[in-house]
Amino acid sequence: VESSRKLANMAGEVFTPSAPIDKHSLFAGRTRQLRKVVDAVNQRGQHAILYGERGVGKTSLANVIADNLSVPGGRLLMPHINADTGDTFTSLWRKVLTQITLYNSRNQAGFLLGNTWHHQDLTENLPETISTGDIRKLLAPLATNFQTVVIIDEFDRLPPGQARTMMADTIKMLADHTAGITLVLVGVADNVDELIAEHQSISRNLIQVPLQRMSTEELGQIITNGLGILQMTIEPGALAWITFVSRGLPHYTHLLGRFAARSAIDQSVLRITMGHVAAGITEALGDAQHTISDAYHKATDSPRKDAMYRKVLLACAIAQTDELGFFAPVDVRKPLNAIVKREKDYDITDFHKHLNEFCEPKRGLVLEKRGVSHRPRYRFRDAMVQPYVILKGFNDRLLTHEVLATVNPP
Ligand SMILES: Nc1ncnc2c1ncn2[C@@H]1O[C@H](COP(=O)(O)OP(=O)(O)O)[C@@H](O)[C@H]1O
Ligand SMILES: [Mg+2]
User: Fold this and answer.
1) Closest CA relative to residue 308, chosen from 259, 352, 246, 273
2) Residues with Cβ within 6 A of ligand 1?
């Protein structure tokens, strides 16, 4: 009993659905993307911008950069801050400078991140408003002693306009004049334009690192890494289910990994089966973020028993998509007909209305619509809602083998 309680706790440490990875040992895949960022750090005049959907693993990747540099820990300064909707260029850099505390004792120039009893506060004597020139004056002396990597996360939250333009100017100026400093901007976006409209003028200095959803192999690695530490295993079919449901979003892989492992541990077995995954799904639904379950209910609630919202949304969630997650109405037809099992098949015109309603505030804007009006394409506005819809469908027994056979079955 004691050891199984321990193991269940450990499952909570290796599978962390709500926290970014901060240990390289738990970080799966992303080799190419990580290499690009590390190259940017190692090349003079290069900076990096890391972008992708919410929950694809941007912060986690930023967290493991340090482990992949050949700089000794004491020679690396790596402030990592989050931008906020209320930030200006000045407040953003104040946060960065607050995280860099220089240790200033006699002939030693060490540093500490966070508080220290003997330090030089870089935010002392700062001008009321910070200019790009101030940034260079402050950072250039640091860069002679330290490799400095400034990570600005949640960059999408920074209001468009002046602050972002000045950040582009900063990159240009640092690239022209200062070695040893790398900016890494991180944010939710489909493309770099959405984050920095001025990127063309700095394209030579800015390495773009789009972070797509994770591949089935990478998601599988998350599970096998974690289970390796727990000294547990999983049946291939059960693993395939977890990766299928995750839709490339590692949050769900961690969520299901955690609950499936615990369900097996509770039965005193060390090999996870489909039954454990199914039990894990029920638990995971109960543990989902409220914003996500609320979005689901807003999208699908209806007083009419025969309403189709739940089924159409499920068909959308498993439909074949392009790289950016968009699908066409035609992609929804097959899975939907397998879900409803009706004598006469539904045609696109029968569920067109539902798709469009999903794009309205009344249904919480669960989908967004792009493309020309006669060839619309849709996708989940919040990527994290999509796997939840599948988990719901599984739990409500709508997601049968026949339904899965219409898409890419696990
Ligand atoms: N490469 C990875 N290996 C293992 N788990 C990951 C990886 N990338 C992300 N995760 C997990 O996925 C979830 C979301 O990651 P996070 O970095 O917070 O995404 P983002 O910053 O893009 O929103 C977290 O639970 C995190 O632990
Ligand atoms: Mg993040």
Assistant:
1) 352
2) 16-17, 19-21, 26-30, 54-60, 222, 250-251, 254
* Predicted structure pTM score: 0.89
Q: How far apart are CA 112 and CA 13, in angstroms?
A: 27
Closest C-alpha residue for ligand 1 atom 25: 17
C-alpha radius of gyration, the chain, whole number: 24
The partner residues of 187 in beta bridges, in order of sequence, read 51
- Other C-beta atoms lying within 10 Å of the C-beta of residue 160: 12
Short-list 187, 136, 200, CA closest to 160: 187
Query: What are the CB-based long-range contacts (under 8 Å, 24+) for 232-235?
Result: 232/261, 232/264, 232/265, 232/270, 232/271, 232/272, 233/270, 233/271, 233/272, 234/260, 234/271, 234/272, 235/271, 235/272, 235/273, 235/274
Structure-block tokens of residue 91: 């407040």
Q: Which amino acid is at 114?
A: G
Measured between alpha carbons, how far is 344 from 258 in angstroms, rounded to an integer?
42
Atom of ligand 1 nearest to the CA of 18: 25
Ligand 1: which atom is nearest the Cα of residue 52?
22
Centroid of ligand 2 to alpha carbon of 329 (angstroms): 31
Which ligand is nearest the CA of 252, by number?
1
Say whether 273 sits in a helix, a strand or coil.
coil
Which atom from ligand 1 is nearest to the alpha carbon of 29?
1
Spatial separation of the C-alpha atoms in residues 212 and 177, rounded to whole Å: 33
H/E run at residue 233? strand 233-234
pLDDT tens string 46-65: 999 999 998 999 999 999 99
Confidence of residue 289 (pLDDT cuts 50, 70, 90): confident
The model's confidence at residue 90, banded by pLDDT at 50, 70 and 90, is very high
Q: How remote is the C-alpha of 247 from its chain's centroid?
A: 12
Tell me the DSSP string of 139-203: HHHHHHHSEEEEEEE-GGGSPTTHHHHHHHHHHHHHHHH-SSEEEEEEEE-SSGGGT-TTGGGGG
